[in-house]
Amino acid sequence: MRRSKEPPEHGDGPAGPVLDLRRVRQFVVLAETLNFRRAAERLHIAQPPLSVSIQKLESELGVRLFERGGAGGVSLTPSGQAALADARRLLFHSAQLREVAAAAAAGSGGALRVGFVGSTTHGVLQRIVRLFRAEYPAVELVLKESTSIHITAQVAAGELDVGVVRTPLMASAQVSLTPLLSERFIAALPMGNALAQRPELRLEDLAGESFVFYGPTEAAGLHAMAMLACQLAGFLPRVTQEATQVQTVLSLVESGLGVALVPMITQHTPNPRIAYRRIADLPEAADIGLALALHADRPSAAAQRFRQVAAHALGAA
What we know:
This protein is 39% helix and 23% strand. By secondary structure, the chain is α/β, with parallel strands linked by helices. The chain folds into three domains: 21-106, Winged helix-like DNA-binding domain superfamily/Winged helix DNA-binding domain (Arc Repressor Mutant, subunit A); 110-181 and 289-314, D-Maltodextrin-Binding Protein, domain 2; 185-286, Periplasmic binding protein-like II (D-Maltodextrin-Binding Protein, domain 2). Strands 4-3-5-13-6 form a five-stranded mixed β-sheet, sandwiched between helices. A four-stranded mixed β-sheet has the order 8-12-7-11, covered by helices on one side. The N and C termini lie far apart (76 Å).
């Protein structure tokens, strides 16, 4: 009768046995001391178990690593000499693996995937990243620009660890939000527009202008707040162009295609072809802001550290 093949023992397979790192460490110590008694003392074990362990390692490898001598002395065989350097490297990399895993679990190592909206590049993102890199240099930051709606969806799905998003959010997702800053709209006008000559504007001053507006789907929060501001001022904006990202809105304003309501932080990056003007009567109901989005149930340790650093960098509570 044909017998079924037995499964390999101790993790043996086509690639050979899985080495016990404890035995590899004992091999290295014995190779350095060349004496069972001294090696056992350094390893804090008895000599007989050490001898048995070395024999098992030699059996697993299928070669003799040591020639036994008198009084517990040994010498390395050619196979033992050839294996010593790789054994040391194996121990070094196993120690590195433990350190990397522990650092990632503690939030001080590993990779952190950060989504951000384009308007944060007007100073906010740089401030957070600079401080985080200074405090946690071993964490690799992987930055990805997107829209708030996509970022929150990716954080909820575990595809991003943290997101810097625009508020208010007009979609639901399994994320927790930490407010970072609150800000207001300002008017962005082509430099040749007559209203650019005024030091300050009222919303009704913009009623007759062509508007570059935010897309109602991809930039729903900014669209809703800008539309609300105009309606509270008593008019519906005449929208001639739409865009998703604030930077694209500004590019269209620069091209002379209309005026726009943009976040205050955009004026921190001056453009000689765009005039930024404060709006004196902007209602508080139309305030916007930035927030940090983390997974609602299982934020990573690094993401939580990023949240702490971001709150500190921006003076948030």
